[in-house]
């Protein structure tokens, strides 16, 4: 199978795309498998989801052979096909667990959508990025809501239109990735250790809070909503345990459980 999902003992889901011979380009089969596995992982009692790929490059985006076959289909068939890619982006962006994306080598086209949909993205120093669609007479349509949210409208106006290749330093400055790494495996372990040290329910609630608050006008409704959210978690079992552990100068139960 081109996509595998592995659940570790520490309750981390590792989602890996393995098509190195095709530079991890995705076609209809890959998209369907990614959707199925992300939806499955979203319903599990896990602590994080890691998205990675096998081989030299993260992903070349859409498989050109598949794209060529789609060009022979009519408009309605192309809409249906594009909606599947849009669904992939949506299920990844709305996964309730923290998501971590590891990028090596090149990430082109739709691959930038996958990166932008993850909560945390780490890339190798030698990584290369490109919104390459206009070179093929296409546009980065279904990934645009997520990529623009990550890099901003101003940067999108340049890179959507020029299809320039840019390096990891620029990707970092634009906000597409959070960190450059000399050792992705070590960075993965470090970020997972950090995430697993935090309250699992609090992490999920904090992620949901971002979607609730981002882009919202700060008014009485939002102020009351955020006050309600913090009150709810303060009186929750996990909130009570976290506060008690802090004042007792001990590790909270979720940390000791994760180390067992």
CATH level 4 superfamily of the largest domain: 2-enoyl-CoA Hydratase, Chain A, domain 1
Can you tell me the CATH topology of the largest domain?
A: 2-enoyl-CoA Hydratase, Chain A, domain 1
User: Judging by the overall fold, what is the CATH architecture of the largest domain?
Assistant: Alpha-Beta Complex
Helix % is: 40-55%
Low-confidence stretches: none
Q: How many strand units?
A: 9
Q: Report the order of strands and helices.
A: EEHEHHEEHEEHHEHEHHHHH
How large a portion of the residues is in β-strands, by DSSP E? 15-25%
Gap from first CA to last CA: 32 Å
Mean pLDDT: 93
Describe the structure.
With 260 residues, the protein is α/β, with parallel strands linked by helices. The chain has two domains: 3-194, Alpha-Beta Complex (2-enoyl-CoA Hydratase, Chain A, domain 1), CATH 3.90.226.10; 199-257, Lyase 2-enoyl-coa Hydratase, Chain  A, domain 2 (Orthogonal Bundle), CATH 1.10.12. Helices cover 52% and strands 15% of the residues. The chain has twelve helices and nine strands. The strands form two sheets. It has a six-stranded mixed sheet with strand order 1-2-3-4-6-9, sandwiched between helices. It has a three-stranded mixed sheet with strand order 5-7-8. Strand 2 (12-17), helix 1 (28-42) and strand 3 form a beta-alpha-beta unit. The model has no long low-confidence stretch (mean pLDDT 93).
Features:
2-enoyl-CoA Hydratase, Chain A, domain 1; Lyase 2-enoyl-coa Hydratase, Chain  A, domain 2; 6-stranded mixed beta sheet; 12 helices; 9 strands; globular
């Amino acid at each position: 199978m081109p996509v595998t999902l592995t659940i570790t003992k520490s309750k981390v889901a590792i989602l890996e795309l393995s098509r190195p011979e095709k530079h991890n380009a995705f076609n209809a089969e890959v998209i369907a498998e990614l959707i199925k596995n992300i939806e499955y992982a979203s319903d599990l009692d896990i602590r994080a989801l890691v998205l990675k790929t096998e081989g030299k490059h993260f992903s070349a985006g859409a498989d050109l052979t598949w794209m060529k076959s789609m060009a022979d289909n009519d408009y309605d068939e192309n809409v249906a096909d594009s909606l599947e890619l849009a669904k992939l982006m949506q299920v990844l962006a709305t996964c309730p667990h923290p998501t971590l994306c590891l990028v090596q080598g090149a990430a082109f086209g739709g691959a930038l959508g996958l990166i932008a949909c993850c909560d945390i993205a780490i890339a190798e120093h030698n990584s290369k990025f490109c919104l390459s669609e206009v070179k093929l007479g296409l546009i980065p349509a279904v990934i645009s809501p997520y990529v623009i949210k990550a890099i901003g409208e101003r940067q999108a106006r340049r890179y959507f239109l020029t299809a320039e290749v840019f390096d990891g330093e620029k990707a970092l400055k634009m906000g597409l990735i959070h960190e450059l790494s000399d050792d992705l495996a070590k960075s993965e372990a470090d970020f997972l250790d950090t995430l697993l040290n935090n309250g699992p329910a609090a992490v999920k609630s904090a992620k949901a809070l971002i979607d609730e608050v981002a882009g919202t006008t700060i008014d009485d409704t939002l102020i009351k909503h955020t006050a309600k959210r913090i009150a709810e978690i303060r009186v929750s079992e996990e909130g009570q345990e976290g506060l008690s552990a802090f004042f007792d100068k001990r590790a909270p139960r979720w940390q000791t459980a994760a180390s067992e």
